[in-house]
Amino acid sequence: MKKNQGYLTCGTFVMSGIKGNLGLVRKEDCDVPVIPESLVTGQIFLFYQILSVLMSKVTVYSTQHCQYCRMAKAFLDKHGVPYESIDVGEDERAAEKMIALSGQRGVPVIVVDDEVIVGFDSQRLNELFGDTTTGDTYDVLIVGAGPAGLTAGVYCGRKMLRTVIISENIGGQALESWAIENYMGFRIIPGEDLMKKFEEQVRTLNIRLELDRVTGIVKDGDLFAAKTISDQVFKARAVIFAQGNKPKKLGVANEEQYLGRGLSICSTCDGPLYKGKKVAVVGGGNSALQTAVEMSQIAREVSLIVRHEIRADPVYVDLLKTKKNITVFPNAQITSLEGEKFLSSITFRGDSGKDQKLQLDGLFIEIGWLPNTDILDGFVALNEKKEIAVDCNGHTSVPGVFAAGDVTSVKSKQIIIAAGDGAKVALETFEYLVARSKD
Ligand SMILES: Cc1cc2nc3c(=O)[nH]c(=O)nc-3n(C[C@H](O)[C@H](O)[C@H](O)COP(=O)(O)OP(=O)(O)OC[C@H]3O[C@@H](n4cnc5c(N)ncnc54)[C@H](O)[C@@H]3O)c2cc1C
């Protein structure tokens, strides 16, 4: 039995605490063991005492625009786990408490009784509160719930295909954009808001949406079988890969050690924790400039560390020039990260060829992305950049396997392109399944 499972009576009703999913059910409908009625007999005080023993105490430390925090809360909501939510972007004392508890300057931090879970650790949350339903067979299995996967999901759902989407988060990279100005129909919209609209549309259809990580996929007779990190297996007649990209690393010593301790790959999540502090952003593209501009409104001082020169759209370059508290260091390569528990300085080699030390409280990495194809292990053909090679209709080298969005060899990486390709491959998948059902 899982940690917070339990059953207790309450007057003429029975409280069912299965996986923390508290709800009132009629006693006669319930075939589970109950605590004798004499223990509680309507006494609310005693009821709460028993309840608190049976239920885990869950606290989620989060910030307002952190998508991983939203995922963690969505996971707990889906599994009916009550929790207290604390916004550490607003409450500085709570932020200090969270940093002391977790040793992290990054959100989310989830405290389950005495256990501190750092980040949105879907594997651990699934172990604590998830279910392990396996054995269902779907028409289509979609890996990834970014713009490509969610759009593919809507098209599959509307074609009445039995569809499961498995993704580590809902929204993908678009969640990390502070403001999107090139998605048709919206003059300007925060990435989080746009992705909420995508998610809402998916949820109107009969589609299973699983927060999990696919770790491998194999051909199993006529089906494809995907295994996840929480040990679930999902089978389907066709697959759509839409797992996008992941951020590149700096490639300097101790990088992992400082992640969440001054080093961040998610400025929209962790930015509010650096109010009035001194930060740096690494990178010279659109994302880096956008982050530097946004952080200039939160932090005291912002340094932009650019390896070569700025290669961003003029709109961001012009905006950067208007910010007085941003200093740009061109031709600068970070050579080391320093600090005891938390990152407190970086060293970079600048124009002169000499090493320069910069004291700071936080460093945001915005240096580009790598395709999430490490889970494929020879399953489909990749190109030289390790992207999934697709034809103009999203077919991969394996019949019945399709791909869309940033994970593919399609050159331009944009939300509207990923979404369009998601729609395209869903229609191709439908055609493939119809043809196969006639065989
Ligand atoms: C900071 C930033 C700003 C941007 N601004 C803009 C902009 O203004 N306009 C624009 O058009 N584009 C913008 N982009 C680019 C845009 O976000 C991407 O092109 C788009 O999100 C790609 O969509 P996708 O669905 O292909 O992949 P992604 O968005 O990367 O989604 C992939 C999904 O797959 C999941 N996943 C990965 N691996 C696995 C696995 N093994 N198992 C399960 N799930 C997995 C991920 O968690 C994610 O949910 C921006 C990107 C960033 C980072």
Structural overview:
- There is one protein chain.
- The two termini are 46 Å apart.
- The longest helix is centred in the C-terminal third of the chain and has 24 residues, at 415-438.
- The protein is an alpha/beta fold.
- Helix 5 (147-158) runs parallel beside helix 6 (191-203) and helix 9 runs parallel beside helix 10 (314-321).
- The chain has helices at 44-54, 67-78, 92-102, 122-129, 147-158, 191-203, 255-258, 267-270, 286-296, 314-321, 415-438; strands at 7-10, 13-16, 23-26, 58-62, 84-87, 109-112, 115-118, 137-145, 163-170, 207-211, 214-220, 223-228, 233-241, 245-247, 263-264, 278-282, 301-305, 326-329, 333-338, 345-349, 355-359, 362-365, 369-371, 401-403.
- The strands form six sheets. Strands 8, 9, 10, 11, 12, 13 and 24 form a seven-stranded mixed beta sheet that branches. A five-stranded parallel beta sheet has the order 15-22-16-17-18, with helices on one face.
- Helix 2 (67-78) links the parallel strand 4 (58-62) and strand 5 (84-87).
- It is 27% helix and 27% strand.
- Bound molecules: flavin-adenine dinucleotide.
